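Recap quiz, item 2
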Amino acid sequence: GAVVSQHPSWVICKSGTSVKIECRSLDFQATTMFWYRQFPKQSLMLMATSNEGSKATYEQGVEKDKFLINHASLTLSTLTVTSAHPEDSSFYICSARDRSRGGTDTQYFGPGTRLTVL
Amino acid sequence: QKEVEQNSGPLSVPEGAIASLNCTYSDRGSQSFFWYRQYSGKSPELIMFIYSNGDKEDGRFTAQLNKASQYVSLLIRDSQPSDSATYLCAVNTGTASKLTFGTGTRLQVTL
């Protein structure tokens, strides 16, 4: 149980284009999903918290107009990187919180999406 | 000041030995604590969580929590080469269920 999927697993795009990444909880409902970014040899950096049916909460320094987050259902959140540039190249990972498991706030991670912007 | 600190390693242990991974945190109000394993190029996978002082065992893994000392550790018994990975300590301070991650400890299990 507690499976989270992400699509695509990798994407290469040209500078200036937009890329959409999907995050799905497959066997549980996730009222909250999180989006992280990880650069090589660095730890996870939380970008935003996505709540179903409401606006995402962005961390300080993360441009909300550049990283659009939509959490339209209890099993799907999307991250759109708008007007991507080479410095946006990174490993984007989502996680979903499953509060049904023993009342903890455990986050289960998707497999990640590797974005390369040329 | 970092909120969650881990020694970056690498921590090298021989196969079959016990690996001990440590983590300290700064927020005394922290509620729950998680250990994730991350293989190179992959996303983190949950090993276990703990929120009460003491030990919690799951197979070869034991998490230890000491809230007074603000310290959480992970012991891996009978270490295997497949345990070689980066181990991330994460702390939930209760703020919107966000997790704060340490930078991770790289573990190398040698033959």
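DSSP finds no helices and eleven strands in chain A.
The radius of gyration of chain A is 14 Å.
End of item.
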